[in-house]
Amino acid sequence: MHPSPRYLLEQTPVISAMVRAVIGTMGKKTTTSAAGIDVPGREYRGRVPAPSAELCRDFVRYCGGDPSPYRNGRIPALLFSQWAFPLITEGLRHLPFDLQRVLNFACDLTIAGPLVADRGTLELTVQLVELEESDKGVRMATRVTTAGKAGAEPTLTAMMHALVPKKRKPGQRREKSASELVPFDARKIGERRFSATAGRDFAILTGDINPVHWLPPYARAAGFKRPILHGFAQMGWVAESLVRAVFAG
Fold first, then answer.
1. What whole-number distance in Å separates Cα of residue 50 and Cα of residue 89?
2. C-alpha to C-alpha distances, 92 to 50, 79, 141, 156, nearest whole angstrom
3. Which of 73, 95, 107, 194 could form a disulfide with 198 if both were Cys (CB 3.0 to 4.6 A apart)?
4. Which of 99, 63, 103, 56 is nearest to 80 (CA)?
5. DSSP state of 116
6. Regarding beta strands 121-134 and 44-49, do their DSSP bridges make them parallel or antiparallel, or are they unpaired?
């Protein structure tokens, strides 16, 4: 199943935020140092439209899940990057970093219950809560909360971990990641081979149109052999595999 390109019309806030981030980087003096940055930072608040029922349905299907539990206005928590990205960008754009080079490498989700939008909107907060400088660059953690109603306790709390990598010296190659070892007692609960269009399809569903995920020439220029799949796409599939195989739906 390939999602309809019409969903891009629903992604206008996300795409606009990405464009503003790119424009804001032009001519901006950037660094890979955390010196002088106050943590925790200012808390940003916002109210955004909830994703449509059709978008939620096709997102869950993309992740290999069953969309039936998401009827009656329930929203899949794993789609949070779609509605939160504009405010995340707003909360980080004052930092002296090149946001185009930021790499998301981990995300922790705490889900307190079903997420249902009150009057079709979601209440968000975004705050930079951690910064750590290393020889690889600057690691930062951003907390994002989502509630379905103004004044309510957050239904979803996401802690996003990202790296602002140091620029490589001329001729220096990208370090290879360490090989992962599967524990002897591991039990396989799912398997999937993503299609060559998986990155493009996820971009349509979430608005994350970074060409490193779907345009081969751009991915090669960034140092990859081919487009790399969104980390949130992989996380969504893993989560739905757990729901199906471990928690019986």
1. 18
2. 22, 20, 11, 20
3. 194
4. 56
5. B
6. antiparallel
The H-or-E segment that residue 127 falls in is strand 121-134
Tokens of 46: 């916002």
pLDDT digits (tens, 9 = 90+) for 198-236: 999 999 999 999 899 999 999 998 888 999 999 999 999
Q: How many C-beta atoms surround the C-beta of residue 245 within 10 A?
A: 13
Long-range residue pairs from 240-244, CB within 8 A, at least 24 positions apart, any chain: 240/60, 240/63, 240/64, 240/65, 240/78, 241/64, 241/189, 241/190, 242/189, 243/65, 244/64, 244/65, 244/66, 244/190
Best CA proximity match to 103, nearest among 223, 239, 240: 223
Burial of 50 per CB tally in 10 Å (0-12, 13-18, 19+): buried
Q: Which two tokens stand for residue 164?
A: 């602002």
**Among residues 174, 158, 184, 165, which one has the least CA distance to residue 82?**
158
Strand partners, 161: 106, 141
pLDDT surpasses 90 at 121: yes
